[in-house]
Fold:
Amino acid sequence: MFNASGKREILITTLTAAGIMMLSMGTRQSLGLFITPINASTGISIASISLALAIGQFTWGAIQPIAGAAADHFGSRVVLISGILLMALGSAITPFMTSGFGLMVSLGLLSAIGSGVGSFSVLMGAAAQRLPVESRGFSSGVINAGGSFGQFIFAPILQKLIQSVGWIGAMWAMVLASLLALPLVGRLTTPVATPQQRQDDSGVIGAIKNALKDPGYLLLNAGFFTCGFHVAFLVTHLPGEINLCGLQPTVASTTLAIIGLANIFGSLYAGSCVSRYRSKYTLAVMYGSRTLLIGLYLLMPKTELNFYIFALGLGFTWLSTVPPTAAIIGKLFGIRYLATLFGITLLSHQIGGFLGAYLGGLAITRFGDYNWMWYADMALSLGAALVNLPIREPALTHAQA
Structure:
């Protein structure tokens, strides 16, 4: 049992990490709203903008293991501050970019690197080092929900700003929002007394080699690849899909907001499932449900109400896969190098994200719709549900944690 001071520290640590996640993911997950305005304003093709955002998806994942290893070695504070400043810089220079290459630099590299550094692997690793084992599952759900809450908040705000002051003004508003995370970094990384934890003396390279030899870790990465494909395709191209259906732009921002709101509850539920069920079964159900939801979506009339219903269903599992995925890694390898190993898994996620964002742009350019992307998404989701089942997931114990 924890005393009042211990419970307060757990709450502050969790909410602080969730606040940083809200700011870094809320702005990033709303970038799809800028595709049409940038295209109309600059003449840069949708395919080129999609490529820049696809590179951002990959870059966001590629930086995760590097940022995780840096945080494991140097500490989280300097890593998080650097990431926040890069994220703000990327957004700040985007209005001055007049070519697809320029957007690749600003949004595809700088902004994506900064957002990735201030995201899942470093934040969950930092929180796990400061929390007792009994609190980590639910805490990871709350931190993950912070990102979804950011999407719920930022999508409609940015849509209103785009309509009222233009996409450039909205982009600079994202700069200010990013900088609001700086004060939270100091609180999250302030040294506190934590329970003694077993230290893995194999070093980060040894930990990576050990993980890559584990079939369960490889299967987990394969499933998470599909999650990235799914999320990046939708967050990038759902506004375009809604536009194809002849609906107002506000439907797109409302749909993204509903997805974020639903994922708050989904993330909290997923966090509670970590301590109640085997996480591989939770993941299998989540991925399988996406196959059914997309199939139903394709059969439904494309009305405003049906988009909102679709968003509620998708949102519940949107990024709720993160807590059980992180939990399996912690069970298999401990938390000493959790930031690094989870970062590698996020890289797999974002390789899928790159393909989801870029192939969506190619599909709409060549075929005029996204039908083949929906079919691919269904097939990959079903495959992800199946590959999680053979993972040899041990029961969570204090010693393993």
